[in-house]
Amino acid sequence: MSTQPRQGLIGAPRQRSLGQRIVSLPVTLLLMLLVLPVMAVRGLVRMVTGRPDQAQPTMPPPAAPMPAPANASGGVAEDDWESLRTLRAAGPRGAESLQAGSPPSPPTLSAVGQPLQGSQDPFRYRPRRSLPGPGTLLFAVSLVLLVVMGTVLFLRNSESATVSTDTDAAEGGLAGQSGEAQSTESPAVGPERATALLADAEARYREALDRDPDENRAATLLVLRDAKDLANQALEADLVGTQAPDINRLLSQIGREEDRLNRVRTVVTSATIGDFDSAGVGSAAEQMDVRVDSKYVIDATTGRVVSFVTARQGATVLRKGDVVSSITVQDPIAVVNRALNVLVLDSRYNLVSLLPDQNPRLLRITGTETWRTPVAFDNFNNNFYVLDPGADAIHKYQATAGGYEVAPTPYVSASADVDLSNAIDMAIDGDIFVLKSDGSVLRLRGGQREPFEISGLDGNSPKATRLFTEVETDSLYLVDSANKRIVEVDKREETAGEFVRQFKYAGSDDFFADIRSIWVSEIDGKLIVLGKDSVRQFVLPTIQDEA
Questions:
Q1: Cα–Cα distance between 296 and 308 in angstroms, integer?
Q2: Could you count the other beta carbons within 10 Å of the beta carbon of residue 43?
Q3: How far apart are CA 492 and CA 466, in angstroms?
Q4: CA distance 44 to 136
Q5: Per-residue pLDDT for 324 more than 50?
Q6: Which of 16, 303, 481, 486 could disulfide-link 320, Cβ–Cβ 3.0 to 4.6 Å?
Q7: 125-133 contact pairs (CB < 8 A, 24+)
Q8: What angle, rounded to 10 degrees, do the helices at 217-237 and 191-210 form?
């Protein structure tokens, strides 16, 4: 069972997530740390000193004392500290006892220049009392805000916990009312979850085995696919890995059953014909062909044609820059076997004939100026065929003594209504099979289209990039590098287009992930594959041996 996220009741307050709580707390603390120290210092200064923490204004210098009259017998002389002490002892009105009839004196001032009342001591500093300043008020407000914020956070956390508890209780009640009592959810991962998924996967696998594959093979494959998905989920849930051996064993069994139903045949390398350097063999239109026991391969990275008669002992038979009949050979783009010799076409459409133990010979070919974007070349009964999607045509050349000295004729009839603009490869066995970029295959006979549709292949549709057939084969072979396989399709009249089987590579590397060309001999049981940087031979099992 898949676990669904639990939803709250309608109208319940939205529960704050743990992430929101974690984010809001540092922001609050950061604001308090930035504001409180400044306010605290200002407030403390105000409270301790009793005055604002600004610098006090400079007091103006005291006015110069008035000079005493020259004939005043009882006056206070300048700098007469003794007289000042006497005045202090006499009190605020002591001056009257010292000199009667003198004019009234100005009010007595304190040491800071303020008028004194009554018996105040003029030498004692008494600070002026006033209302709290702005620093004290800000400090108090900060304290209040801190208390309020802490209270709000506390109440929100308590509210979220309460809502969560109420939601769980309500959901439990609803589940009880519907008869689906769910005290606890099954964990998404863990041993219990892995055990349950593994049991479901095994049940689906046994169900697939009990089915009749001949009755509905596609339905059986769907059941196996479900079993594989459940087993993979069990593998993810088994964090400890205690059940991994059992799960992997089941996955292996499911894979073998899928291969059996999909008619997968694994092949291993029986011989390595040739190796190339790390740069690989590059890419060319028709890059490999076989004549008797010789394998001809174009190494497009070095611009040469290599012949392998003995394994791993390749010999260069033609290379870029060679001069043949006063013509300098350019990059080879196609190698095609025909009854009498091997043909090599270069990038300037020069055609060279190769024969063992003979020097290369230049053949004449006319009408190449009508070619637009040729992508594939083949031979049948010494006639030379060029697949040219740019011209929406297949050019057919009749052989002559000097090569192909007569202009080509279009193979496809004008009334056939055949679109070749997206063709990418072709192979000839008397009929011409054309592979299109969408993976479909056209069958042309005498310039007319014949019915041909691939059927019976379940799973991924072929994304073929190359195809091969010839007169002596009963099947058409499609190179599907995207799915790392070679697909075999029947081409016989009564069963044309039916899926036969598919071949996958059993080695440790992904050799079938980048196939450049293939060659098949059903009679000899040979499959030769040109990969990115090597040519390998495989044993092709016969249909009779598998029956």
A1: 7
A2: 22
A3: 20
A4: 8
A5: yes
A6: 303
A7: 127/50, 127/51, 129/50, 132/46, 133/46, 133/52
A8: 170
Quick one: tokens of 125? 């500093």
Asked if residue 118 has pLDDT above 80, the reply is no
DSSP state of 139: H
Q: Among residues 363, 323, 373, which one has the least CA distance to residue 343?
A: 363
Token pair recorded at residue 197: 């998924």
Helix axes 18-49, 134-177, angle to 10 degrees: 160
Q: Are 319 and 331 in contact (CB under 8 A)?
A: no
User: How far apart, in whole angstroms, are the C-alpha atoms of residue 493 and residue 14?
Assistant: 70
**Mean pLDDT, residues 355-365 taken together:** 95
- Separation CA 348–CA 333 (nearest Å): 9
pLDDT over 70 percentage in the chain: 67
What is the distance in angstroms between the CA of the first residue and the CA of the last residue of the chain?
A: 42
Query: What φ, ψ does residue 368 adopt, rounded to 5°?
Result: -70, -15
Angle at 139 between CA 136 and CA 142, to 5 degrees: 150
Are 525 and 295 in contact, with CB atoms under 8 Å apart?
Answer: no
pLDDT attached to residue 501: 96
Burial class (CB in 10 A: 0-12, 13-18, 19+), 473: middle
Cα–Cα distances in angstroms (integers) from residue 293 to residues 129, 269, 271, 299, 308, in the given order: 118, 18, 14, 19, 8
For the whole model, what pTM was predicted?
0.65
Read off the tokens for 122.
């003029």
The pLDDT of residue 5 is 44
CA–CA separation, 530 and 514 (whole Å): 9
Of 210-214, 239-243, 495-499, highest mean pLDDT: 495-499
Over 32-66, what HEC string results?
HHHHHHHHHHHHHHHHHHCCCCCCCCCCCCCCCCC
d(CA 314, CA 309): 7
- Residue 122 scores a pLDDT above 80: no
Give CB contacts under 8 A, 24+ apart, made by 393-398.
393/420, 394/420, 394/426, 394/432, 394/434, 394/444, 395/367, 395/370, 395/371, 397/365, 397/367
Query: Tokens at residue 96, please?
Result: 């009257």
The amino acid at residue 81 is: W
Task: Give residue 178's pLDDT band: very low, low, confident or very high (50, 70, 90).
Answer: very low
C-alpha distances out from residue 264 to 181, 200, 451, 466, 546, Å: 47, 26, 26, 19, 12
In DSSP notation, 188-221 reads SSSHHHHHHHHHHHHHHHHHHHHS-TTT-HHHHH
Nearest to 474 by CA among 456, 491, 457: 491
Please report how many Cα atoms fall inside a 13 Å half-sphere around the Cα of residue 126, on the Cβ side.
Answer: 12
365 in Cβ contact with 403 (< 8 Å) = yes
510 has which bridge partners? none
